[in-house]
Each structure stands twice: as C-alpha cells, then as structure tokens.
Amino acid sequence: MYNEILRVQKEVVLCDDGTHTLYSKEFDEPYHSTKDGALHESLEKHVKPSLILKSNQNKLTILDICFGLGYNTFSTLYYIKKNNLKTKIHILSPEFDEALVRSLDTFTFPPEFDSIQHIIKAVSQNLSYEDEQFKVEILLGDARKSILTINEKIDIVYQDAFSPVHNPLLWTYEWFRDVRAICKEDAILTTYSTAAAIRLGLYENDFYIFVHRAEMMRYSTVASLQMLEGLEYIDMELKKIRNSEARSMRDEDF
Ligand SMILES: C[S@@+](CC[C@H](N)C(=O)[O-])C[C@H]1O[C@@H](n2cnc3c(N)ncnc32)[C@H](O)[C@@H]1O
Hints:
The protein is an alpha/beta fold. 31% of the residues lie in helices and 26% in strands. The protein has 9 helices and 12 strands. It has a 9-stranded mixed β-sheet, with helices on both faces. Helix 2 (38-53) packs across helix 3 (71-82) and helix 7 packs across helix 8 (196-203). The model has no long low-confidence stretch (mean pLDDT 95). It binds S-adenosylmethionine (SAM).
C-alpha cells in the first residue's frame, strides 16, 4: 500500500554521484541536489562538518529536519561505523510523510548502507531503532508541532527541509527560534541554504554564520551558537548594511 501511494506522488531520480533520491510532485522539488548527489550531499554538507566540529564529544543528540529518505540519519550512522568511532548518537527526526518512511526498506540505497540495512528496516517498520550506541526516533507529524515536545537538548541540527520557496514555514525566524530553544549553548546547525534571508533568521536567533566549502560541491552554511575558529566567518551586521533590503522570513508572511 505504501509503495502504491509513493508511485503516485514521487519519482525515483538517479543523482550524479550514482545514488538515488526522489522527486516530490507535491513540493515540486527533488529530495536532494541531483548534481551534488544524495549520499555525497548528506555526508559533505551535514555529517562530516558536524561530526568533525563535535569530535571531542562522546555523546551527541542530533535533530534531523526532516527525515525524508533518511539519508542524513543513515549517513551519520554509516560514517560513525566506517571510522570506527565510539560516539553515542541519538537522532530525533520529525517527518509527516509516514508512507515514505514505511517504504524505505525497499528503497535502493547505496552499497555504503549495506552494513546498516537492519537499522533501515527497523526504522521503516517501527519508526524507531535502538542499540547500545545508536538511537533513532521519527517524530511523526508536523515538525512545527513536534519540535515543541522535544525535551532533550540538541548538539547538532541538520536543517534539510525542502527549499524556503516551497516549504517556507520550516525556514522562518519563528521556526529557528523554536529550534534554538532546544539547542545546547554550543550547538551547531548545517544547511544547504546560503540565502541572506535564512542566514538572517539564524543570526537573529543568536547563531554565528560561517561558509562551509567541500570538494565537488556548492558551498553551504554552518551556523553556531558559539564563535568557531578556522571557518570562514560572515559578518551579518556588515551584510545588513550592504543589503538593507534583506529580511528574515516571518510566519505572518505565509
Ligand atoms: C528535502 S526532504 C528531507 C530529505 C532528508 N533530509 C534526507 O536526507 O533524505 C524534506 C522532508 O520534509 C518533510 N516535511 C515537509 N514539511 C514538513 C512538516 N511541516 N513537518 C514534517 N515533515 C515535513 C517532507 O515530507 C520531506 O520528507
């Protein structure tokens, strides 16, 4: 039944890195940049910068916005296993498309995920997974509501919603305010968006803004509640002076 619903609303797309993603007819957008590639994008824009910046911590709580095909969650576990890291990982991931998550045990993931196939199956069947090192929880429903129910404090946010044009309510000042409220004081956030309006929404919620560059990849954004050394810092006050028209997005606009 779940695969039947999927066939109507989504199409499988092959990305340039050889991995598969979906195209959402509802949001008129692919789930990943087909040029950067689903696995490559996930590892380079979210997983690697986050886990490298947090490599001194032995326990991390990650907010994965939103689960989708689960690439960001599964790439995190793949990366940890591949590098033989002992870090304990707890991932909380809002998602309102239950049919999509339930269909993932038959999705064609890359061979890199072979060693975590049992986790993919469990998440797809139970919407959760837990062992001694990893805990994954899908928060079924609207992310704007489920985020208000989270009691844990977050170390890392993967901000990977559909684009601000197609899914604006997951990019507003108020959304980032609610995200910030559950973050630890040294939390970081990764996102593919480099738009001034999005960076302003983060900046107005106390995040410092940095450019993240990776090989064979369009640059992206790392935001942090503490100043970070060694990253390309963006002075948002200067940006505001140079671009006086720029505004963060607000709930009331949509
Ligand atoms: C770009 S995709 C996420 C891709 C995912 N991070 C991955 O790596 O596969 C965006 C996801 O957000 C979900 N979504 C959109 N609006 C939502 C909302 N208000 N609450 C919960 N999920 C939402 C969509 O169903 C979709 O699965």
